Give the backbone structure.
Amino acid sequence: MHQPRDNSSPGLSRRQLLRGGGLALAGLGAAGLLSGCGGSAAASETAQLRFWHLLSGGDGIKMAAMIDSANSSQSAWHVNPTVLAWGAPYYTKLAMASAGGRPPELAIMHAARVPGYAPGGLLDPWDLDLLAENGVTPEDFAPRIWENSQVDGAVFSISLDSHPFILMYNTEVADKAGVLGSNGQLEEITSPDRFKEAALEMSKVTGQHGLSYGYLNDGAQMWRMFYTLYLQHGAAIELVPGQKAKVDRDVAVDVLEYIGSLLDDKIATASGDGGTAIAEFAGQDSGMIVSGVWELPTMINAGVPLDAMPIPTLFGTPAAFADSHAFVLPHQKSLDEQKRRDSYAFVAALLKGSINWAQAGHIPAYQPVVRSAAYKELMPQAHYAGAADIINYDPRAWFTGSGSDFQAYFADNIQNVFLGRTAAKDGWDSFVKRLDTLLSKPNPV
Amino acid sequence: MSASTSIRSVSTQQAPAAENKHAARSRRDRIHGWSFMAPFLLFFGLFLIWPLIHGIVMSFTGKSLTGANSSFLGFANYAEALGDVDMWHALGNTLYFTVISTVPLVLVALLMAALVNMGLPAQWLWRLSFFAPFLLASTVVSLFFVWMFNPQLGLVNEVLSKVGIAPVDWLNNPDIAMWSIVIATLWWTVGFNFLLYLAAMQNIPQAHFEAASLDGAGGWRQFFSITLPQINQTTIMIVILQVLASLKIFDQVYQMTGGGPGGTTRTIVQYIFETGFTGYRLGYSAAISYIFFGLIVVVSIAQFAITRKRSA
Amino acid sequence: MATTLTTPALTISPASSVPVRRKKRIAPSRIIATVIVAILAVTWMVPFAWAAITALKSETEAAATPITIVPESGFTFDAFAKVLQQGNIPQWTWNSLFTSAAITVVTLVISALAAYALSRIDFKGRKVLMVVIVASLIVPPPVLIIPLFYQMVAFNMIDTYWGVILPQVISPAMVFVLKKFFDQIPRELEDAALVDGAGRIRIFLQVVLPLSRPILAAVAIFVFIGAWNNFLWPFIVTNDSSMLTLPVGLQTIKSAYGIQYAQNMASALLAALPLIVVFLFFQRQIIKGISTTGLAGT
């Protein structure tokens, strides 16, 4: 296994010496007071860039490999990644580090979280000229992604990918169920009822379920599914501090009821968590799974005869929930210009090499990669690349985005709707009430 | 306060002898006193008194982690907190934990000390076993127990399955998670209370027991009629310290469950942390901090009052 | 220990740590008690043992079902080697050691000076100080994290050793433990020195401190353990992985490769090791320290 941490850089020898010294002292139980400089890195020609991210598992391994190859491609800088736990722990620490003035030179955030960070001065905007020097221009990004990267007219995030909620299906099961089109892909499904019928056909083939969907104790999963179908109605959610949340209640209730009707233990299991759903589809006990693109490698490794596509447009308007892993520049109290330049170079290198990232399931944001022949041949990724044109990020507010409290509030109010214990309208109303409370509070950013 | 009276008596004795000398000495004492206090007072002022005052000021503002929106709000934060369902939930969880952790932490410590104090061989071994976990950082304890409580791979469920008990989802079941944290906490800190009890028991004059033995009192009667009353003060102190320590719980919960599932183990300190740093609202978080502080003061005064009444 | 025998303060420590041995024939109740204590003790050792067994397995064995005690492929030190090579454990160990030692030294110095003044010097304002310091015992540290964090940002001390150390050096409880001890040192010893014309500082250094070695050691041990294991404050004030203490680092920093059980347990055991070793060497002193200073609270 290759290591993301450098053992090669000659400049680190003194630090390692001090570390060794620390250990030796610990072993002796002696309270050594050599000096206060144990943590300072040695002077080195290679700039050491601190880079925080929240990717682990398949994504983490891919990212480690990409960092390694970027590091070894030149000797001007060296990126040292730090991985923190996904979700609240990561975002809390990133905000605290930025407020404290000594944050990492570079970090990854979910693009939908950026509006909750940037206006308060926790992030620095990207310099488009400097990006262009590194061969990256606004035209290189899908329009929806680029549009979302801006807050108050400045670019605060450079997206590596978009990772929408998609549909993966088992081609053998679909074939036997007679729902494949002439091109060998799932037939075009354009109505909610047809989707149910197709799923039921598949459940007859598997003898278990037609569709895998896990949501228990997982607000993100509930939200992704709900928001995708809600948007397909052409409805929107607008959250403006100081005002009531602007939502389409009728659409929301319809969508919640429709999802509830899928969870009938025939089409999909009535109460399953994410792990159950993945295991079910990977074990070929269902024909389809709705999930994030990042589960793709798991399914490929499980040997499922697999294809994938954007979530079918059941309610008229093509739409899909998505977020992006995006590079951000945490605000430095005393900025090291050289390190900042090196950060740009590193980001450009990763964007240009993001065909590797596509293997983890994500849709590269950098269009030259998406247009490349290599990507067009990458299956089944190429089959859902179109989702990038219909993606929608979370409604903007300081409390929304991946791993935010927003999704936890959704879970608090909606889980019982999905479980059939609460009426859809009651669950929705209490969720909206919760949003109204949040919007009535002073905006902290 | 015995020292202060003795100092005074010394100075009054000297007073009539040499008035000037006395004045010079008191001046010198003042300089000496404040110089000796100065280093401590500097840190005490900077890192305790000042933040304590500044925290109150912050609690009246909308101060944010990002620096935005720090306008004066008056009591708005406090008013909001009193109507904040999540805060009450977190306070409730904290009180719940305090009750269900204090009882076993005192009783098990008492049991351990009473048994070890029966003059068992290899005292050092028992002390080592029971006290060693106390030396661990909370993180280490959490790593141990998260691993032991793992639903599929954990030792606890494995042992239970051997006796035919179905696997338990220790940290993800809302009805059980808090108890799992109590188990980890018991293992971690009971050794501290055990040591205090053991020291107290070993300080009981032997003559008490000898007299009781002559009267024909057995082990049980000796324990209830001599040992327990003799260590009464220790018990009171242990309970007071334990309640105050349990009210402040944060580490294990944050590390083992993160406050989940569904907020059922989120404690008030975690809620302070989350409103302040995850939600950026330092001002609001400061207000909750002082509500929590108020609770601690009330509990302390109540305990003090009860103790006074008992010992009076 | 010999020097302590000259002071009456001795009553608060050494006597209590000598176990009272009752010479009796072995009663059945004692056999039962031994069995119960032994079962409890074994139970108390299980988490250590299970962590050690896991840490000595390969990652695949550690995550394999059914669970085995002795892995089929035998025990291995791979997990320990991995965390020592790749991880930040050596750096975090150093950070913990340095900050804990600094906190202990500073706490000891400022608390002893203050305790001496409160115990011995009759200066104006002493009573008020006593009241203020007693009252401060009631302040729970978590209440201060929000304003203290803000203050650390203002002082530019986030992610520095200063930020970790300075707010941890105030310990009113330890001031009182020391004051109580100083109160019991006979004044005659100092008066004799005063007559010889010795100044306060010299009396403090040459008379009081040498007599107070056991209590100073107890306070030092108590403060060191507390600082070594403190989680909340270092967690608030440090973010950069090169600045974290062991407890904070183990909690905060994850592996890009996902959860690796054997390495997790190896890290945990490495983090536990220093204090366990110290305890094995200084068991008596530590237990005495806890018994004498423990009731003062933390």
